[in-house]
Amino acid sequence: MIGGLCNTPPSTAWGTYDAVELEKRGRPTLTLATAYYEDLLAESVLNEGMPELRRVLLPYPLEGQPEALIREVARAAIPIVVAALTDGMGPTVSRVPVPTEP
Is this structure's pTM higher than 0.90? Predict the structure, then answer.
């Protein structure tokens, strides 16, 4: 389960809450967030009592970016998301690299 895109303070808090609840029920989850909200997400997982909750950080900003860049971010995110959901020994926080200019 991917617990929402945390791209605002409320979505970060709710995405974390939902992911923690699903993890408690035995469902592997991860939370996607833009790097801008990394500190808030880290605080949220601590507050929810699950600092090991897997997170994937996307480049910031995404809003207003050209479609080609968004597609590049999405393509780069796929193997990172799959690894985060399937590799129980992987890192707690993974980062999608910032696309390079053509």
Answer: no
